[in-house]
Amino acid sequence: MPLNVLLVASEAFPLAKTGGLGDMVSAYAAALRDAGVDVSILMPAYPAALERAIDVVPVARMTGLPGGDARLLRARMPDSGVTVLLLQMDHLFAREGLYRDPQGRDYLDNLTRFASLAAAAARVARGVRNVKRPDIVHAHDWHAGLTPLYMRLAGVGAKSVFTIHNLAFQGNHPLAMGGWIGVPPELLAPALSDERSIEFYGLLSMMKAGIVHADRITTVSQRYAREIVTPHFGHGMEGVLLAQGAKLSGIVNGIETSVWNPATDAHIARPYCVDDTAGKQACKRELQQAFGLVRDPFAPLVAIGSRLTEQKMADVVVRALPELLEHYPRLQFAILGQGERGLEHAMQELAAAWPGRVGVQIGYDEHCAHMLHAGADILLHGSRFEPCGLTQLYAMRYGTIPVASRVGGLADTIVDYAPHESRDEDCATGFLFDGDQSHDVAQALGRALAAFMQPSSWHALQRNAMSRDSGWKASTSNYLALYAELVDARPALADTRVRKTPGRSRTAVSAEAQRVRGDEAFNPGAGEIVLTA
Ligand code: ADP
Ligand code: GLC
């Protein structure tokens, strides 16, 4: 019997995506399937997900989840055909945004919404007729963080893995809500008294629940796994992670090489490959036109494509650009992103001040992201911290050379170009820099521009970057080895149930969920699964 793995996540491209998490989940699922694993994804049935998924059929009805009753639908991913289980709770998930309203405010009932996802995962792990029971439940980020805890509370035998994609987002909520979502009082007590507690600086933390209760924890690069146990990168969670250090490891993300492939990409002006990059010129022309830049084939064209936030050092970029533009008269920037309003405006002001040299598109546009990677010469990717980063992997595959911060997955995936050192252009794929001041960015970009002026060095860099193996094969083997350890260690008929009565709380919960569910505290070990006709 093949290993059965259930991936639990709030996003999976193309059903739902706000960033790299969605790309990772669907690409990794396809890689697991290719490796012979019986894999499914469990995620919310957002309206767009229902529209894009194929062969959708109802399989079960679940009663008494933290947010009320649900329908479980089975479908397939449109590209890969991987099985996806969609948790339909329209009062929680049929909304415009995944986590926030159109004004950018977090939905007030995110705890109830994602506790419901985690509770549904634990039910599937306990057994739902017509759905294979997983050997491994692999939960991703805070949205799925309660999964390992609910599995324990329900006495499920399957093993749990929790992957941290970004420790900056922790899903923290008032502690008083814990009882309502079925967390026993002793697991809400000050953390010092019980290391299984999910209390975190006076709040309930879904991220901490995943960290403390999973059988294994992974992060999306090895360097980030080392960084997050330090105060600088730990976002307050470093102590918790240190205490759980024995189960923590890093496995770097791969990318979906069939989607991000300049030889077959339907989004770009002309295909090209490592042995014939002529098509990249046409892609550059198209990008210059789309971003209102001067049509200059020899101008160094720098792309920025990311969330416009402090994590991505967008504030530093805004400060660094004017001087760079003065200093290098032909330098151009194409900027695609959205994020903090102030940073979006600052980028637009730069475009207005430097017509023909800075082009900005605010918004989220998948097609444009492909054009950007294909048409640019350089990707500027500053990050104060970067768990893995996928953008630099896409850029390298398109022969666009990254200039990036020496942190996390950026440092693990980019080989720095240092022409006078032993690591010369034989293996370099980009430029790494330390620091988060505008002169750090300017200096690094200066190094890249010097190499750009030397065609032979530049072509060597492009060849190395385009030939880098960024596929999922090696990392999938690492995950499989980790799963194998867990499955081998699983006692027959394990009963790890924490037998406690859930606490109760009457603090504000989603009014709609309360109406649907009544005033009963959620009980992770109870609840029905009713088969649909
Ligand atoms: P993060 O998840 O931290 O934002 P990653 O590099 O892992 O960073 O993933 C970002 C993903 O989101 C990539 O697929 C990137 O192309 C995409 N992306 C980011 N901003 C935009 C945008 N404005 N339009 C289209 N795609 C975007
Ligand atoms: C997060 C991280 C990013 C990573 C992605 C996928 O969004 O910020 O670095 O690449 O998850 O794992």
Explain what you see.
It is built from 18 helices and 19 strands. With 533 residues, the protein is of the alpha/beta class. The protein has two domains: 311 residues, Rossmann fold, CATH 3.40.50; 189 residues, Glycogen Phosphorylase B (Rossmann fold, 3-Layer(aba) Sandwich). It has a ten-stranded mixed beta sheet, sandwiched between helices. Helix 14 links the parallel strand 17 and strand 18. It is globular and about 65 Å long. About 3% of the residues have low confidence. The chain binds adenosine-5'-diphosphate and alpha-D-glucopyranose.
In percent, how much strand structure appears in the residues? 15-25%
CA-based shape: globular
What's the CATH architecture name of the largest domain?
A: 3-Layer(aba) Sandwich
The share of residues in helices is 25-40%
Low-pLDDT sequence parts: 493-508
CATH superfamily of the largest domain: Glycogen Phosphorylase B
Straight-line distance between termini? 28 Å
| Alpha-carbon Rg, integer | 24 Å
| Secondary structure category | alpha/beta
Number of helices: 18
Count of the separate structural domains: 2
Beta strands, count: 19
**CATH first level of the largest domain:** Alpha Beta
Order of strands, widest sheet: 12-11-7-6-1-2-5-4-3-19
Give a brief outline of the structure.
The protein has 18 helices and 19 strands. The protein is α/β, with parallel strands linked by helices and 533 residues long.
